[in-house]
Design brief:
Length: 457
Amino acid sequence: MLKTRGEDRTAYRQIAKLTGPIIIQNLLSAFVTSADVVMLNFVGQEHISAVSLAAQYATVLFMVLYGLGTGVTMLSAQYFGKGDMRAVEAVQGIALRFSVAVTMLFAAAALLVPRAMMRVFTPDPQLIEIGAGYLRNVSVAYLCWGLIEVYLATLRSIGRVGISTGLNTVAFTLNILLNAVFIFGLLGAPKLGAAGVALATSISRVVELILALIVSARIRDIRLKLSQMFIRSKALFRDFLRMAMPATLNDVSWGLAFSMYSVIIGQFLGTDMVAANSFTSLVRTFGTVLCFSVASGGGIFLGQLLGDGRMEEAEKGAGAMMRLTVLSGVVGGLIVLAAMPFALRFANLTDQGKHYLKVMLLINTYYVMGQAVNTSLIAGVFRAGGDSRFGFICDTIDMWCYAVPLGFLTAAVLKLSPLWVYFLLCTDEFVKWPWVIGHYRSRKWLRNITRENVVEE
């Protein structure tokens, strides 16, 4: 029994070591989002709503890149645990092929057809015009984002989380400063409002990419080189398609479905609900920082154990990770609850909008726990062992066969009150708990997925 407790303490320390920098990174990302909302609050509710809707495309792109990054982590963490760095380089190259293609598509659409993209979410001409300006200016950021996210995911998979956090710190800090400059027209810059948010994002992403290339040239572990896209490994490419692509499709499917929530709110529930949802999403982001970080850090830790063949340690590490997840869910709910008075006092909303916001935040005090458990298991534990197919099937059925149809039915057909529609949408995480927890207990995810001599010379 003492040995088990000692092993648990070791697992907690290792997970905390990987999770700490990721928490900082996720907090900084949340601060950038909050800075957008805080500053646009002084410009007007229409700018907040337009950016909230336009940013749904960034959410979808993030899910694509997060899925690719998860695929990188899934394979690279195990090969790093095995000691095969050439395979890690090959995995990064495969992910770069996909990320470059996808980000070019998103950037072209944002630059050429931004109004059509906005019409998907709202019929309001004012919101369409504001959102189109945002999308045009953010198109450059999309291109840089694809390269950066794959490289940072590779760094995290080999335990170099401090470097990725440092790069994000510089970029996010610059983003916040430039937000103020371009939103309010400081230092002689034009006063751009919502478009200024996008311009600040693009400039900071360009700077982050330049810094990533500089760091890459100075470290020996792993470098960001486009030539890696041409490393040949049929076995790794098949493994990436078999394991990483279901993870990517899982995150894209979930991200698109979650964006459909914004379509439902924007098309059927009114601008007060759209604005309230913007603030709710912001507060929930802070509430989920800890649990999402535990999922990322814990997944890397488990992957390295599995790649090294230490199955028993990996199983016990997963148990320690789940205990941390439940704790992080409780803390996240308390954060949402504590933030409620400040959000209600600060939000520049109508009385109806503030009423919506209060109830939506109360719903999210427990919704955070649902996200914590599912994210840690599906995106952390299962993917550490290369098991991404289960999550893809589970999330797709849950979101597209249950949550999205339920949202359209209650909002467009039954015409329930906006808060009832929102409450029903927020049951999605709990519906899949029995299947997710059952799969965890089956131990089917407990696998070493590495191969010998996978890179072709």
